[in-house]
Amino acid sequence: MTRNEFIRLCGITVAGGLGASLLNGCASAYYFARFEIQERKLSIPVSEFFVTQGKKIKPRKFVLLRIPQFNYPICVFRISATDYTAVLMECTHRSCELQNQGYYLVCPCHGSEFTCRGQVKNPPAEDDLKTFSVKSSEQFIHVEI
Ligand code: FES
């Protein structure tokens, strides 16, 4: 093995390890929920909004949905047992994909912030996010797209 081959192999190994650890980190923070889709209605089992940690069951603040019709995930926030919101994670400033920070969405490109109801909290974005109608039943959360 030449010196250049060795350096290239080490670089690929480090990059692969870094990518795997980043993916693991994202997997714990961002949960993509299971759902069923019928025409324009997404049905998410309420159980997707809970996670088991040891002997405890804890509610998730939000889950993400990836839908073929949109280039960005939909974030569904669980504000309370009966209050859910759904917003498209596309920044209205220049279309960067937003990141979750608890009940806020933050843009990594220029720093805009949005509430979990899609309202602009901090510029440079001026327009609210695209939101979706959400209805909850005993077993499912329904999002109209
Ligand atoms: S693209 Fe989001 S703040 Fe500019």
Features:
145 residues, alpha+beta, Rieske Iron-sulfur Protein, 2 domains, seven-stranded antiparallel beta sheet, four-stranded antiparallel beta sheet, 1 helix, binds FE2/S2 (inorganic) cluster
Question: How is this structure best described in words?
Answer:
With 145 residues, the protein is α+β, with helices and mostly antiparallel strands. The chain has 2 domains: 1-30; 32-144, Rieske Iron-sulfur Protein (3-layer Sandwich), CATH 2.102.10. The protein contains 1 helix and 13 strands. It has one helix spanning 3-29; strands spanning 36-38, 41-45, 50-53, 56-59, 62-65, 74-78, 84-88, 99-101, 104-106, 113-115, 120-122, 131-136, 140-144. It has a 7-stranded antiparallel beta sheet with strand order 1-2-13-12-7-6-5, with no helix packed on it. A 4-stranded antiparallel beta sheet has the order 8-9-10-11, with no helix packed on it. A hairpin with a 5-residue loop joins strand 6 and strand 7. The longest helix is centred in the N-terminal third of the chain and has 27 residues, at 3-29. The chain is globular, with a radius of gyration of 19 Å. The model is unreliable at 6-28 (pLDDT under 50). Bound molecules: FE2/S2 (inorganic) cluster.
List the helices and strands and how they pair.
Elements (H helix, E strand, L loop, with lengths): L2 H27 L6 E3 L2 E5 L4 E4 L2 E4 L2 E4 L8 E5 L5 E5 L10 E3 L2 E3 L6 E3 L4 E3 L8 E6 L3 E5 L1
Antiparallel strand pairs: 1-2, 2-13, 3-4, 5-6, 6-7, 7-12, 8-9, 9-10, 10-11, 12-13
The structure holds FE2/S2 (inorganic) cluster.
The site of FE2/S2 (inorganic) cluster has 11 residues, from loops.
